[in-house]
Write a structure and sequence with these properties.
This protein is mainly alpha-helical and 130 residues long. It has 2 domains: 93 residues; 33 residues. Helix content is 79%, strand content 0%.
Length: 130
């Protein structure tokens, strides 16, 4: 198997593993939040200021969790884009004919050239070879 393809599959596996683990952590935190809310509703001894502090604490954890997920997703997107580009470049380099002049195998930016320009380059290249 090709190294770039293997690396891309490894990144995909890591992303899937992270997403599943993160989702499990979110479920655990949400269940804990429900238990804390139930406890606070039944705890007559807990002052209102304490309840407010616990609610702020829960909101801070949620915000931090969302920011962390966003940062990890952006990082995975950058890594995936890098490997996609590297795989495309490797594919192009493997399929490009060896020894042919550039007018017969144009670069990506030269694909829409007109026939007259290609014929001129072909003529020049042929004259050099003769």
């Amino acid at each position: 198997m090709e190294p770039l393809k293997m690396a891309k599959q490894l990144i995909d596996f890591n992303k899937t593993t992270f997403d599943n683990t993160f989702d499990a952590m979110v479920l655990l935190q949400e269940q804990t939040e429900k238990m804390v809310n139930t406890f606070m509703a039944q705890a007559a001894f807990l002052p209102e200021e304490g309840k407010r502090m616990l609610n702020e604490w829960v909101q801070t954890f949620k915000k931090g969790r969302e920011e962390f997920k966003k940062a990890v997703d952006e990082s995975f997107a950058k890594v995936e884009a890098y490997f996609d580009e590297a795989c495309q470049e490797e594919l192009i380099s493997k399929t490009e004919p060896v020894g042919l002049p550039s007018f017969l195998w144009p670069n990506r930016g030269e694909v829409n050239r007109d026939n007259a320009a290609i014929n001129e380059e072909c003529f020049k290249w042929t004259r050099k070879r003769l």
